[in-house]
Amino acid sequence: MTNNNLRSSIWFNRNDEMGVRHRSALCSLGHNINQKNKKPVIGICNPYSEFNNCEMAFQNIVPVIKRGIVSAGGIPIEFSTMSLGAELLKPADMLYRNLVSMEIEETIRGYPIDGIILLCNCDKTTPAQLMACASANIPAIQFSGGHKSLGFFQGEKLSSGTDFWKYWDEYRRGQLNEDEWNELQNTLSCSVGACNEMGTTSTMTALSEVLGMMPLGSSTLPANDSRRMMMAENLGHYILNMVKKNIRPRDILTKDSFFNAISVLAALGGSTNAIIHLTAIAGRCGIKLELRKFDEIFSITPLLANVKPSGTYLIEDFHNAGGIPNLLIQLKNMLFNNCINFTGRNIYNLLKNKKFSPSEVIRDTENPILKGGSLIALFGNLVPRGAILKVSAASNHLLDHVGNAVVFSDYEDMLNKIDSIDLNVDENDILIMKNCGPRGVPGMPEWGQIPIPKKLLDRNITDIIRISDARMSGTSFGTVILHSSPESELGGPLSIVKNGDKIKLNASKKQLDLILSEDEIKDRLKNVKKSKSEHLRGYPRLYIDHVLQADEGCDFDFLLPSDPNNENLIEPTVGKS
User: Which residues of the chain have pLDDT under 50?
Assistant: First the structure.
């Protein structure tokens, strides 16, 4: 795809009646285009929606991006996609991640797009876009909308997620009155933008920088920072350069770049959701990321970012301490240095004139927050294909523990019982929640941070072990074991756990076991009854029938490439109809 061989030339550089109609369509939008058009058409993928306050800042950013594209010699065409608002979209935004990736891929396939700028700022939007551009494999660059402004509650900085969970428990204990609870609501999201701690959004946009798909230093800028506008205008020059040099996502998204992203995920103490998303993005490139490989990298990577929920500070502090570029400099000896970003240049060459600046927010490797293993993968007879625990946000006294299972059959069952004084539970027990996995709901919602039972909160017990096949918000904390695979709905071992069964967690050995004989486990598994889903049609039916398990990235089986080297996945057929 050079100026002499643009993909859009199939539509515009022709002398038949279809060529006239295609050019006329762009003329109606004010673009001066002729039969010898050499201007690349640049798609701007904008998920803006008033249902999603994370991405409302794009209203102001898009005109600046268009200006940059025009000045660089391109034709900007904006299009929308379904908005994946984590707060309001039910049962889970994760359910629709794959749908949006398909929507973007099919938009690229069907329209005259030579390169694409992808605007992202909410949890599942970022991976959905990266999955799509990995599949379509045309020049692409990603840009985030930034995090929201800080709120203050009772004189303290308020993070939009992590602190909310803390105050929610206080409210349930009666330590916040109704006026204070309403005040919290009004200060929690005091501007547009993404969550302002190391939740899933901040983690995934940071990893997009590391993967080479987003401008270095851009993901951690606040939503209202003028430097974001300056970077937005440069996107036009970046994407035109990619089109001219034919730099495509799969040139950037290599196995080594994914290994680097896993290392940075550990150093950030980032969201557990990123494990699923990185696996899915890599899968679209024909790269298989094994959960044991994640754990291998996690175990040797120190936790350096002192950011909530694994630390003390917020994203704005992280940015002011140098952000991802500063972290990459400190990790240089642990990362592969042969990876490029969207400029076509080696990432470390772009950082060669920068020096590491240690601080309390970004530590050096000699003074880490945790020497290694901020995230771990667990295996055992309860989770044969693995589960995930964020050790950096867990309680040390629970990391080697045996307890009795207190079982909830599903999310509704948990909600109905968790605050009951009749719930038979104590601080040594282990909460089990079933049927919340990819197929079980469907969509694997962020229900994994099961609330502490009220009768325990009343005794000032703030953490116990919780296990499910669900996910957890990247802003959450606690000794919470997630992504149990295979899931309950698929007949995984989690489905056979009964009240009173003993379960053993040994985090140092990375083991999670149901203390039953092999024969008892086999007998119970034989008698597991498959439930019948109420979703008989539409996209949820498609999802249930084709979604892969958590350790496979929860992508659809039919979206993985049979031949990842095929360069013609998105080539259109432009006929005369």
Answer: 1-3, 576-577
* Residue whose tokens read 């295996």: 379
C-alpha to C-alpha distance for 30 and 269, rounded to whole angstroms: 48
- Among all chains, which residue has been given the structure tokens 């800042």? 57
| Contact in structure between 468 and 484 (CB atoms under 8 Å) | yes
Residue 480 has a pLDDT of 96
Nearest partner of 35 among 11, 6, 1, 3, judged by Cα: 11
| Distance separating alpha carbons of residues 492 and 306, to the nearest angstrom | 36
Domains of the chain (ranges; CATH) run: 1-38 (no CATH), 39-149+191-350 (3.40.50.2300), 152-188 (no CATH), 378-526 (3.50.30.80)
Kindly report, residue by residue over 90-129, the tens digit of the pLDDT: 988 999 999 999 999 999 999 999 999 999 998 899 999 9
Which strand (E) or helix (H) includes residue 542? helix 538-546
Report the distance separating Cα 330 and Cα 349, nearest Å.
15
Nearest of 97, 129, 135 to residue 283 by alpha carbon:
135
- Give the CA distances from residue 128 to residues 101, 150, 172, 266, 325, in Å, rounded to whole numbers and listed in that order: 5, 27, 35, 22, 24
Query: Whole-angstrom Cα distance, residue 239 to residue 167?
Result: 44
Question: Angle at the Cα of 330 (from 329 to 333), degrees rounded to 5?
Answer: 90
SS3 labels along 372-437? CCCEEEEEECCEEEEEEEEHHHCCHHHCEEEEEEEEECCHHHHHHHCCCCCCCCCCCCEEEECCCC
Nearest to 360 by CA among 352, 369, 371, 372: 369
In contact, 489 and 443? CB cutoff 8 Å: no
